[in-house]
Amino acid sequence: MQGIWLSSNRFKNLQQIAIAVRLAKEYPGVVTSLIVGNEVLLRGEMTAADLAGNIRAVKASAGNIPVTYADVWEYWIKNREIYDAVDFVTIHILPYWEDIPVKAKYAAAHVDEIRKRMAVTFPGKEILIGETGWPSQGRMREGALPSRTNQARVVSEILDLAKSEGFRVNLIEAYDQPWKRKLEGTVGGNWGLFDSVKRQVKYPPGVPISNYPDWKLQMAGGMALSVATFLVAWLTLRRRPWTPR
């Protein structure tokens, strides 16, 4: 899938569209579909009418390659005219970021419920989940707690649903992205399946998951500090008090 970034800058939009269409034609076996815009309606940088026009322009110039648009699921419902312009519907479902945050134990069921609701609202076209997942660290939003164990649970349950019910899903995201912390706080930089420092998967298959993966090192450090503190105190008590001559 090849994305096309759209914004309020019409000139840059034309550049992005031209590049994506060229790549789709040059690499037909690699570029299987085009995503014309990502959350541009959510950001308020384009009207639905302008977006639909851009999508149709891409379809006209790209040939037979399927075209879609990606946004949070509510914005599809608010702008249903986009449905007629695309070949399939790409929605974002992030239980943690919902207006009423969803707890981790209900997150997969929430994703499935929204997917089925969208399938009824937009019949006849595939509903692709373009973004879903759970953060491994950050602030708690009501009952939605970011943690490694919760992330593993949500991701695993969503993937199990996708396999059993036969729908496509894209997890957000492969690696933690620390730069997002400036926009969304700590939680924004911790959605990856891999950490950004060691570049290692956070929960390898078959390995017990802990919210404190370095607990042994932390425990050893705490014990060493305690021993050192008591040793200094003991040596201090053993010293003979100083008396002036």
UniProtKB/TrEMBL annotation:
Main location: membrane
Described purpose of this protein according to its UniProt entry: Glucanases play a role in cell expansion during growth, in cell-cell fusion during mating, and in spore release during sporulation. This enzyme may be involved in beta-glucan degradation. Active on laminarin and lichenan.
GO MF assignments: glucan endo-1,3-beta-D-glucosidase activity
Protein name (database record): glucan endo-1,3-beta-D-glucosidase
EC number, as in UniProt: 3.2.1.39
Keywords: Carbohydrate metabolism, Cell membrane, Cell wall, Cell wall biogenesis/degradation, Glycoprotein, Hydrolase, Membrane, Polysaccharide degradation, Secreted, Signal, Transmembrane, Transmembrane helix
Family per similarity comment: Belongs to the glycosyl hydrolase 17 family.
Cellular localisation: Cell membrane; Secreted, Cell wall
InterPro entries attached to this UniProt entry: Beta-glucan_modifiers, GH, Glyco_hydro_17
The keyword Transmembrane belongs to this UniProt entry's keyword annotation: yes
GO biological process assignments: cell wall organization; polysaccharide catabolic process
